[in-house]
Amino acid sequence: MSTTGTLKELSAAFAKKQPKQVDWLTEETPVLDVIPFEEASHSLWNVFEEVSDVTGGGFVDMDAPLDSIDVESRLRKVDLAIMGAKMFCPEDKARAFGGRDSYFAKKTPKALRKLGVDAERSLLYRNFRKYALDNSRLVDAGAEGDCWSILAVRFVSGETTGLYSPGAFKQGGILNVSAINGGGLYENENGILGYGVRYKGYFGMQIANPNTVAALVNISAKKKPTALMVDNLLDMVRAQNNTYLFCHRKVLSVLADIGKGAAFQMMPGDRGVDRRIAEWNGVPIVTSYNFDDATEEHVVVNA
């Protein structure tokens, strides 16, 4: 099994026993919903080749010897992280719900929605935005505080991509579900008898090309970016196919205001099928409430 796709596409292919898991995970996570995932090289990490320089090649005259191309690269490693949680049900509450299985079945959708929200926020702030800040891949809108940001990400197979463990989907679900203590009664840390269940999956995010992630920072209602700033942001990631702009929903109004005319366009369609409701010069804009709402701190951007 070695397939690339969104979580929903992977679920459709390999998680047929528990197909609702992915719907619950991505119900409130529109960014997580569009990220492509690839199988990692190992169960808990991925080893990849990072190209540092390519030299040589080009046109030559007829019957002339071909030039050599040298590709300099280095091996890198990125660890996967655990997407998971455990849930406890006291013995008496389980009886009131008609048994432990009925209780966990009722609570699982809400638990997985929370897992999805936490995972998306981590990807936005601890992966994409942090990478842009650490590597000075930034465009500055100029606000001093109470800010929003816009992330530009171009997904490239083998370079900038989500990762999943080769051992995933063995139970026919996105996450492995296991009863604690074999499904029997046990005493939790508070001395209460009950039942437990554990959800766990190994996923990660790899960014191996600096020309695929950038951020437009220090945006506020009073200090909006210009249309050229958004274009410069997209140029930083060499926007083409599989490129997205990610932002808080309120930033959509900012983009609509500065992109009047050809740049900003609303997209008709069924939102239940496609959550992209707008484009900037053909690049889909995906909004999420898992961004901070005008509460980001000012970012110092070196000139």
Describe the overall structure.
The chain is α+β, with helices and mostly antiparallel strands. It has one domain (7-46, 77-287). It has helices at residues 7-14, 20-26, 30-34, 91-96, 100-134, 227-236, 251-258, and strands spanning 37-39, 45-56, 69-79, 81-90, 138-140, 148-154, 161-164, 176-180, 186-187, 193-206, 213-219, 243-247, 264-266, 278-280, 283-287. The strands form three sheets. It has a seven-stranded mixed sheet with strand order 5-11-6-12-15-14-13, sandwiched between helices. Strands 1, 4, 7, 8, 9 and 10 form a six-stranded mixed sheet that branches. A two-stranded antiparallel sheet has the order 2-3. A hairpin with a 2-residue loop joins strand 14 (278-280) and strand 15 (283-287). Helix 2 (20-26) packs across helix 5 (100-134). The chain starts with 6 loop residues before the first helix and ends in a 16-residue tail after the last strand.
